[in-house]
Write a structure and sequence with these properties.
Elements (H helix, E strand, L loop, with lengths): L2 H7 L1 H12 L4 H18 L5 H36 L1 H12 L3 H19 L4 H12 L4 H11 L7 H14 L3 H28 L10 H22 L4 H18 L16 H20 L5 H8 L2 E4 L10 E4 L4 H15 L4 H13 L2 H20 L1 H13 L3 H16 L2 H19 L3 H18 L1 H11 L5 H29 L4
Antiparallel strand pairs: 1-2
Helix pairs in contact: 1-18, 2-3, 2-23, 3-4, 3-17, 4-7, 4-15, 4-16, 4-17, 5-13, 6-7, 6-9, 6-10, 6-11, 6-12, 7-8, 7-22, 8-10, 8-22, 8-23, 9-10, 9-20, 10-11, 10-21, 10-23, 11-12, 13-15, 17-22, 18-19, 18-20, 19-20, 19-21, 19-23, 20-21, 21-23
């Protein structure tokens, strides 16, 4: 264990926390400086060749543009088109016909719809789309961003058709169904608790915020968590969040229709015809259809679409692989197609839609710099060995107490990379090696990495950039990070206690 190397390795992380959370620096500037610091440290302190460091950063920037910023632009584009066509006003009226209580709408949008979008698409859609709708419904944009960041935690474990868990199984050599089941068990308590946090945040009255909505909030959590456990145990990683989110939405609507919650924050409502409703939802319905049918759930279609790729050699170091751009299966392309078709159905002209797209791209300039810098930073840290150094030091320092902090390593990976999948690639094997050396169940610690990784998603600069881009809050990254940080700390503490405590009870550790 090299203490000096470890201290040097955490400098970029400390810089991001201080610059965004304490100094309130603009996200694009803070992350750009962070990238520069990381490149310099990797070359001077970790003997990383200059060319390798620069190409690692370039690979990260490329990944930021495609698919991450592409998805953000597409998500904001679908919202802007719906707003221009009047479809968003209709959607608002339909939602408020289910309930005029913003607490219930938060359960439907941030938790239910957000969970579904994460399950089928990922890459920021689950934050960008619900946050923008909540802001239009009258919620403070900052509050909408924070709520959607908190909601976009547990669903990310099985996001993008189960990609994080299936990748974790692949890198660790563990059986995917058993791993999926244990991940669901570790996350169950948080799945039940998060809807209560979202409701309390909506009104800012603590426990008093639950008046009139305790039952529906409990239903939203249980109806997501229980199906997820059952599906993960018997079917694996692809469907748990899809089934969980759909059951959650259906039961939440059913309960909302049978109750009259009294909230202090209200949204106006007018009657909407069936035809108006279908037309308003057309872009989002098309997103749903295109994403489902182009996913691994339909292998033959997915294989054809996923074969349309371009490989670009970028990184020059050891283990370098060409960066692959999948043109037709990325959510960005699918959302873009759905938006053009949906906009035409809603009565807009092609010229208008193109104009909206250009305008949307212009408003994403700072977001592109922020996301490009943070993903570039994560690639340099990963390739140069900085992340490995931090993780190995944590294992050495904690010994038999290591299972308690195992989720923190997963959270660290997501904080840096912005991706649960990347966190699992970085640290999955380390968790299994630690489990073997401590003679405890490798499935339990590998799952702990995944559970912890969902926490890091809440405060990742990349996720915050998505939220600010979607809600027009570019420059407010530090404020949002500060607000989300305390909830992230509570979330991580709970998952650490769950992993350590339940591990002892069920003799996994």
């Amino acid at each position: 264990m090299d203490v000096v190397q470890t201290l040097l390795a955490i400098i970029p992380i400390v810089w991001l926390i201080l610059s965004l959370g304490v100094f309130k620096m603009r996200g694009d500037l803070a992350c750009l400086i962070g990238l520069g610091i990381t490149i310099i440290l990797s070359i001077i302190s970790f003997n990383f060749p200059i060319l390798n460091s620069m190409t690692a950063a370039l690979e990260g920037i490329t990944m930021a543009v495609w698919p991450i910023v592409y998805v953000i632009v597409s998500a904001v584009f679908i919202y802007n088109v719906s707003k221009e066509s009047g479809g968003m006003d209709t959607i608002m009226n339909m939602l408020t016909s289910i309930s005029t209580d913003l607490r219930v709408l938060v359960l439907l949008l941030a938790w239910g719809l957000g969970g579904f979008l994460e399950a089928v698409a990922g890459f920021g859609t689950a934050v960008a789309i619900p946050a923008s709708i909540l802001a239009v419904l009258g919620m403070s944009p900052v509050k909408a961003a924070v709520i959607c960041l908190i909601a976009n935690t547990t669903p990310t474990a099985f996001g993008a058709i189960g990609l994080p868990v299936s990748t974790l199984a692949q890198v660790t050599g563990l059986e995917v169904k058993q791993l999926s089941y244990i991940v669901s068990l570790q996350l169950f308590l948080l799945i039940v608790l998060i809807p209560f946090i979202l409701v309390m945040l909506t009104e800012n009255k603590g426990v008093k915020s639950m008046k009139g909505v305790f039952g529906i909030t409990l239903v939203s959590g249980l109806s997501f968590g229980i199906p997820q456990i059952i599906v993960s145990k018997y079917l694996g990683a692809e469907l748990p969040s899809i089934v969980g989110s759909l059951v959650c939405i259906a039961l939440t609507i059913l309960v909302a229709k049978k109750m009259s919650p009294i909230g202090t924050e209200k949204a106006p409502t007018t009657e909407v015809t069936f035809e108006q409703g279908i037309k308003a939802w057309t872009p989002f319905i098309l997103v749903f259809i295109l994403i489902i049918f182009s996913s691994p759930l339909f292998p033959s279609i997915y294989k054809i679409l996923n074969s349309v790729t371009t490989q670009i050699p970028i990184y020059t170091g050891e283990g370098a692989k060409p960066y692959t751009i999948a043109w037709l299966t990325t959510p960005g392309t699918l959302i873009l197609i759905a938006t053009f078709v949906g906009g035409l159905v809603q009565g807009l002209k092609l010229k208008q839609i193109v104009h909206i797209l250009v305008k949307t791209m212009k408003q994403m300039g700072k977001t592109m710099i922020t996301v490009g810098s943070i993903v570039g930073l994560s690639k340099v840290m990963g390739y140069s060995g900085m992340i490995d150094t931090i993780a190995v030091t944590l294992v050495a320092l904690t010994g038999s107490f290591y299972p308690f902090i195992a989720p923190i390593i997963g959270a660290l990976g997501t904080f840096i990379t912005g991706s649960d999948t990347s966190s699992n690639v970085l640290f999955g094997e380390l968790q299994v090696q630690a489990a073997n050396s401590l003679k405890i169940d490798p499935y339990w610690l590998a799952a702990a990495n995944m559970a912890g990784a969902t926490a890091g998603k809440m405060i990742s600069p990349q996720s915050i950039a998505v939220a600010t881009g979607a809600t027009g809050l570019v420059g407010e990254e530090g404020n949002i990070l500060k607000q989300a940080m305390k909830y992230c700390a509570i979330y991580i503490l709970i998952i650490c206690v769950v992993v350590f405590g339940l591990g002892k009870v069920f003799q996994f550790i």
